[in-house]
Specification:
Blueprint lengths: L17 H12 L6 H12 L3 E5 L6 H10 L5 E5 L6 H5 E6 L4 E6 L6 E5 L6 H5 L1 H7 L1 E4 L2 E4 L5 E6 L12 H4 L2 E6 L5 H13 L2 H6 L7 H12 L5 H14 L5 E3 L3 H17 L7 H12 L4 E2 L1 H5 L4 H10 L6
Parallel strand pairs: 1-8, 1-9, 2-5, 5-8
Antiparallel strand pairs: 3-4, 6-7, 10-11
C-alpha cells in the first residue's frame, strides 16, 4: 500500500527534538538580539552535520554567535584567527623532533577539536586555505605521510568579511563548496539596535556569554543527526531538489553552476528545517527556505550580471520563480 504524507505528521510538541531545539534557541537569544534567520540556519547546519560560513560586515555578532553555539555543546572548542602570515602548520600541526626518543612526534594544531571557529577566514592566502581542504571534506589530516582522524563531532564555523573589504582574499571555489551553507548577516533594525544597547547597558556581553551552560551532549547531537537523516521526503521533492541545482548549470546569468554536492546539501538542510519546525517529513517550503544559503556560495555570476548589480540570491529567486513547485 502506498504511504501517504499524513502518516508522517506528528504533533509539533511530539517530535523528540522540539524541546531541545527550543532550549538552544532560548539560550542563544539571551545573548543575541534578533538575527532569527541566522540562528535557524546555524541550527540547521549543526543538525545536518556540515560546516558553516558566516559573512557580514564587522560588528554584527558573527564571531559572538559562533562562540555562543559552541558553548551550548558539551565538546571541545578552538578558535583560529586567520591572518596573511598564517602557515598551514599553524592550523594543522607539525612533526617535532623528540630528543628523548630520537624520533619525530606529531604535535596537533588547533584544528584538532570538535567545534572549530575560524575567524576572518578570507584574510589568509591560498596556501593556508588549501590546508583545510582535506580536513573539511574527509575529516582527517595527513602530515608527513601519516593520517590523523578527527574526533566526532567535527564542525568548522568560519566567519568572513565581504570580499571588497581591505586585506581580504577570495576563497577558492573548491573550498567554498565544502561549506554546507553560507549565512549572510546584515545590520540590525533600529528597534533591535536599541535592545542591544539596553542589554549591553545592563550587563556586559562577555558576562552573558560566560553564564551560558551547555545543553547538548555529543550523544544527544548524534541522536539528533540520526533523526534528521531519517526524516521522510517524497520522491517528487527529491526530483525538485535535483531540478533546482540542475537549473543553475543552464542559466545564462551564471558562468558556474552548483555541483552534485549542492544537491546533497540542499536535501540535508531541508530535512534539518523540517525537524526545526517539529515535523518528520519535508515539505516544499523547507527546500525553498534552504536554497539561498545552500547555493549562494556555489554559483558564479557572469560579469554582465554583476555589472547590473545582481546578486547570487537574485538569480536563485529567478530560477525558483520559473519552476513548478510540487504539491
Amino acid at each position: 500500500m502506498e504511504t501517504t504524507e499524513q502518516e508522517y505528521i506528528p504533533q509539533n510538541d511530539a517530535h523528540p527534538l522540539t524541546q531541545l531545539v527550543e532550549q538552544v534557541q532560548e539560550r542563544i537569544h539571551t545573548v543575541i538580539v534578533g538575527q532569527a534567520g541566522m540562528v535557524d540556519q546555524l541550527l540547521a547546519g549543526l543538525l545536518a552535520d556540515g560546516h558553516i560560513l558566516i559573512e557580514g560586515v564587522p560588528g554584527v555578532a558573527k564571531t559572538l554567535t559562533a562562540k555562543l553555539l559552541s558553548k551550548l555543546i558539551n565538546t571541545r572548542f578552538s578558535r583560529i584567527q586567520f591572518t596573511p602570515d598564517l602557515m598551514p602548520s599553524d592550523v594543522l600541526g607539525t612533526s617535532v623532533f623528540n630528543p628523548q626518543t630520537s624520533s619525530f612526534q606529531f604535535k596537533a594544531g588547533p584544528v584538532f577539536s570538535n567545534i572549530v571557529l575560524i575567524d576572518e577566514i578570507n584574510r589568509a592566502p591560498a596556501k593556508t586555505q588549501a590546508a583545510l581542504f582535506e580536513v573539511m571534506e574527509e575529516r582527517q589530516v595527513t602530515v608527513d605521510g601519516l593520517t590523523h582522524k578527527m574526533q566526532s563531532p567535527f564542525m568548522v564555523i568560519a566567519t568572513q568579511n565581504p570580499i571588497e573589504h581591505e586585506g581580504t582574499y577570495r576563497l577558492p571555489e573548491a573550498q567554498l563548496d565544502r561549506f554546507l551553507l553560507k549565512i549572510t548577516v546584515g545590520y540590525p533594525t533600529l528597534e533591535e539596535e536599541i535592545k542591544i544597547l539596553e542589554r549591553h547597558n545592563q550587563q556586559a556581553i562577555t558576562d552573558l556569554l560566560n553564564n551560558i551552560e551547555p545543553v547538548i551532549t555529543p550523544e544527544a547531537l548524534q541522536n539528533a543527526r540520526m533523526l534528521v537523516r531519517e526524516t521522510h521526503i517524497e520522491p517528487k521533492l527529491l526530483e525538485f531538489v535535483a531540478k533546482i541545482v540542475w537549473e543553475t548549470r543552464n542559466n545564462r546569468s551564471l558562468y558556474l553552476g552548483a555541483s552534485p554536492r549542492a544537491s546533497i546539501a540542499l536535501l540535508q538542510i531541508a530535512k534539518a528545517y523540517s525537524v526545526l519546525r517539529g515535523r518528520n517529513f519535508v515539505i516544499p517550503e523547507d527546500i525553498l527556505q534552504a536554497a539561498p544559503a545552500v547555493l549562494r556560495h556555489r554559483i558564479g555570476l557572469t560579469p554582465e550580471r554583476e555589472m547590473e548589480g545582481a546578486t547570487a540570491d537574485d538569480v536563485i529567486k529567478e530560477i525558483i520563480a520559473k519552476m513548478e513547485i510540487p504539491r
